[in-house]
Design brief:
Blueprint (H helix, E strand, L loop, with lengths): L8 H7 L3 H20 L13 H10 L2 H14 L3 H28 L25 H16 L4 H20 L5 H20 L8 H5 L2
Length: 213
């Protein structure tokens, strides 16, 4: 009889998956499973549904709008050149964070977990995507910034770190994100702080900006 036609290349790939492909698929499956199990505040009827209002307050504390408005207000009210320099760089850090998270979300386009309830505080178009967690990115960035540039007593420094961790954990508990979204967000925020330090704005490097204040 006639020889069998060769399988299309894509079918061969499916029949002979690479080790890397299998590993990534397995990790993704574990991530989705564990994230769903940890989404204990994803709805009122969830295991910890009664804690959902508290988790949503924590969600707002890590949202970009309160941080941007608070930083801008402090910048306008400050009468110290040193404080204005710190606040202007914090504003730059927050804007950089928003842009980078939006770009990565738009490129990756990972959907939010299926158990997420879309009642988030002030969202934009890319917020329908999940990767990375903007709250986790912002928490890591602000945490590093505050610990580096504000003189705080040890208990307050501990509270800042705890706040960043709680904000990040709350994203999975609320069902907003998968664990990998949060972990990558923390790493991205940590790295973005290095960019802010490298591009630090000062009267010497950005005189036009400081002239506005």
């Amino acid at each position: 009889g006639a020889a069998a036609a060769p399988l299309p290349e894509e079918d061969c790939m499916k029949l002979n998956p690479s080790f890397v492909g299998i590993a990534l698929s397995s990790l993704l499956a574990i991530d989705l499973w564990a994230s769903k199990r940890l989404g204990v505040c994803a709805a009122e009827g969830s295991a910890w549904g009664s804690a959902r209002p508290l988790m949503k307050v924590i969600e707002v504390s890590g949202h970009g709008i309160p941080w941007l408005l608070g930083t801008f207000y402090g910048l306008c009210q400050s009468d110290s050149s040193a404080a204005r320099e710190v606040l202007l760089n914090l504003l730059f850090a927050l804007l950089l964070d928003l842009v980078m998270v939006a770009v990565v979300k738009g490129l990756v386009k990972r959907p939010r977990p299926t158990h997420n309830k879309m009642d988030m505080f002030v969202t934009i178009s890319v917020d329908k995507y999940s990767f990375p967690s903007g709250h986790a990115t912002r928490a890591a960035l602000v945490c590093r910034f505050v610990l580096r540039h504000l003189v705080l007593a040890v208990p307050l420094r501990v509270l800042v770190v705890l706040w960043a961790l709680i904000v990040s954990i709350s994203r999975v508990m609320l069902g907003r994100h998968n664990m990998t979204d949060v972990l990558f967000g923390l790493l991205l925020g940590y790295a973005l702080y290095g960019v802010v330090e490298h591009c630090w704005l000062s009267p010497a490097t950005a005189p036009a900006l400081f002239a506005l204040w």
